[in-house]
Amino acid sequence: MYYKNIPEHLLNYIYPQENLNYTNEDQEVWRFIFRQMKTRILPFSHPSHQKGIELLGFTEDHIPQITELDEKLSKYGWRAAPVSGFLPPAIFMDFQAQKILPVATAMRRLENILYTPAPDIVHESAGHAPMLIDSEYSDYLSEYALLARHALYSKEDLKIYEAVRNLSDFKESSHFNPKDLENFEYQLNLANQSVHFLSEASLLARMNWWTAEYGLIEHENKICLYGAGLLSSLEEGGACLSETGPKKLEFGLECIDQKYDITEPQPQLYFTKSFSELKFVLREYSKKMAYKKGGIASLEKAYQGRALSTVVVSSGESYSGVIASYRAEGERLISLRLQGPFQVSKNKELLKQSLSHESTLEVVLAEGAKVLSVYGGVALYKKFREQKKYKLKKVVPSQSRPSQRENDFRTLRDLTQTRDDLKFKEFKESLNKETHWLVMHRTRELCEQYAMSHSFENIPYPEDIRKFLNQ
Fold first, then answer.
1. Are 84 and 15 in contact (CB under 8 A)?
2. Are 157 and 201 within 8 A, CB to CB?
3. What is the Cα–Cα distance from 118 to 83, expressed in whole angstroms?
4. CA distance 318 to 378
């Protein structure tokens, strides 16, 4: 089912959910998050999100199956495909433009239960997926993705992507060590500081962040959550609407001037009056983009970016590669030099191609030509193998944890299904001060559900969990 009608060039990024053996701990992390979402986030989410949670069949009992999600989303014109972690931005947008929701299959570590910067199945399934039942919002997402596929990006954008992915992967690694965190954060700061020019892709990424990830919307005279980052973050989603939460600004095109930091809580959020307003602002920005405007100024944007782009000229040719230099007279392009892998096509027919990083292509347009369009990426995307250098890293499947903690979670899941009062009493009495807080928390929930006495009034929660539960 995953592979049906998925373009061939995207298949490299499919990562079957069956490759992960979710542990009992993973399942209990999902249960805790989903139970907290129902009481702390859903009452404040947009009605479409609330309805989507119900229609897509999410339950606290188990981590969602992407095959089932794919089938249910098909009723609303979308699909779901399993992937692993951060996808390259161009690939993510390619999925989304075709109305395929890429769903990260990993479950966040228990230590990151309130928030993780890495995409995980909580964020994708319980955050993004439910909002797709809203036709106006899903139209915005697909229109955004189609636009973003044309955006010019820069080599610094790719460095930032790699740094963000490495930091997120490290935070979710079973080998996580706080002492090493400083190095990954330093690499991200270094990548951010290297930016010499804001590309179209980076500006559109900001719009995506302040809408699809951290967006608020006014609905029936109150502010609701619709951004998946808020909907899937117990830490921020439940508190962002409080008086002490981040400031709320009215959404507009100026949101692209506001940078963001994925490692920190957001200091401000933007609220829109309707999902149609999102499309209006997006279209306003599109008028400024190089693929629509063309001209030498657009060519200069691609030159500044030093990344793969495609230049379409009035004589009919399309030149794809990294622009090393060009010469123009007024609005007429006289010559163009591409460095590294390149491709030349005309009317979608491949004329010339080189995959060598040592290649150079010199183009001289005898009478000059107008630049009709300039956009990010490559004209004949499937044939240009250079794109494969951004192939996603493999994810290490979840490993069974032969620990007391995992054994306790397995016992709890068995007791949840069987309700053996005698075994439950024995289990409850076996717990001690070394028992993990989530085991004790879930045991107390079962005691209350079964109307049994318990002595779990003073569970040793970590400080961040205690603060969250006391909000």
1. yes
2. yes
3. 13
4. 9
Q: Which residue has the tokens 């205690």?
A: 466
Q: What CATH class is the domain 8-285?
A: mainly alpha
The answer to whether 144 touches 282, Cβ cutoff 8 Å, is: yes
What pLDDT, on the 0 to 100 scale, is given for residue 187?
Answer: 86
Cβ atoms within 10 Å of 396's Cβ, excluding its own: 13
CATH code, 294-390: 2.30.30.100
pTM of this structure:
0.89
What pLDDT, on a 0 to 100 scale, did the predictor assign at position 10? 86
In 287-391, which residue ranges form alpha helices assigned H by DSSP?
A: 290-293, 295-305
Distance (Å, whole) CA 143 – CA 99: 10
Q: Which amino acid is at 389?
A: K
Nearest to 106 by CA among 197, 47, 174: 174
In 10 A of CB 71, how many CB atoms? 15
pLDDT for residue 387: 43
What's the mean pLDDT when you consider all of the chain? Answer: 88
Q: How far apart are the first and last CA of the chain?
A: 43
Q: 212: pLDDT confidence band, cut at 50, 70 and 90?
A: very high
Does this chain's domain 8-285 share its CATH topology with 294-390?
Answer: no
Alpha helices in 108-199 (DSSP H): 121, 129-131, 135-148, 155-171, 178-193
Of 227 and 177, the one with more pLDDT: 227
Question: Which tokens belong to 460?
Answer: 């040793």
CA–CA dist 231, 248 (Å, integer): 16
| pLDDT at res. 46 | 98
Tokens of 294: 């063309």
| The amino acid at 425 | K
With residue 268 as reference, give the H or E element that holds it: strand 268-272
Q: Is residue 382 predicted with pLDDT exceeding 80?
A: no
Backbone angles phi, psi at 176, to 5 degrees: -55, 130
DSSP code, position 126:
I
Place of tokens 């009723």: 75
- Six-digit token string for 141: 């997402």
- Report domain extents, the chain: 8-285, 294-390, 404-469
Q: Is 406 left (phi over 0), alpha (psi -120 to 50) or beta?
A: alpha
3-state secondary structure of 210: helix
